[in-house]
Design goal:
This protein is α/β, with parallel strands linked by helices. It has one domain: Metal-dependent hydrolases (TIM Barrel, Alpha-Beta Barrel). 35% of the residues lie in helices and 14% in strands. It has an eight-stranded parallel sheet, with helices on both faces. Strand 4, helix 3 and strand 5 form a beta-alpha-beta unit. Helix 4 runs parallel beside helix 5 and helix 5 runs parallel beside helix 7. The longest helix is centred in the C-terminal third of the chain and has 16 residues.
Amino acid sequence: MVNKKYKIIDPHIHLFDLSKGQYQWLHPNNPPFGSDKHIIQKSFTERDLTLNSHFTLEGIVHIEAGFDNEFPIKEINLLKSTITQTPFKAIAFIDMALPAKKFNAQLTHLQSHCKSLLIGIRHIMEGDDIDLIFNENILSNLTTLAEKNLIFEAQFEIHDLKSTEQLTYYANNLPNLKIVINHCGLVTKDKYHLWQRAVTILSSLSNIHIKCSGWEMDNRQYEQLWLQKIINHLINSLGENRIMLASNFPLCLFSKSYTDLWQSYLDLNLPNNIWQAISFDNAKDIYRVAATPSIRV
């Protein structure tokens, strides 16, 4: 595989402009804390998404990064003015616990200004916020996303099996809603067996997809064997058409460079049809990125 050039789509990146955005979570006095936080406390543009000669970046999906959660349109306007070389779609933030009327108003406003770019909504529900997934307004707001053909980006610890069961309840009730779980469902070694049970629960829901990324969030020194173990388990459980490789740039820099991360994916030596699906085709189809079709290998 290494002698060929591969087109990839990265469905999970963040770009920052610290001179314009709020990014409260990047401030040194706010969580997450860590001695290496300085690595990402800077501005990043699409020019920083550099790859080695094995790859060409054919599309990206920008995930909201807290530019201004009160006015998420500001972040998308920044992307429109600064991403000029790469086809992209945007996932914005709206509070999924809002009453339906307020949620609809915010979503309508976003769509009226950037409908061609907006592809979905993310509201992080991990850690202390995991109970948000049970909020009484979630189902009605997810129904609105489904009606508008928008994606719900779910980010929570799927080893919390009650929360995973709740997500499957929504997925069952809204078969037309695409749900994408971020960062492998925040898998950790100490919760691995519960995570496996969660994946089994999710496996029967064809409208639930999983992005493989965020390895550095739990362990900066994660090993290639861990990455391989998780990706192989997801492929075997859900099938290659529901899995996507992604970077979580720039947070991936806590562990390795952008190009080294993608090289580590290539080094898994997956069968060509599986590599094609999880590095390009699935992201193109799910996020409707206007990338040039990749040549099948």
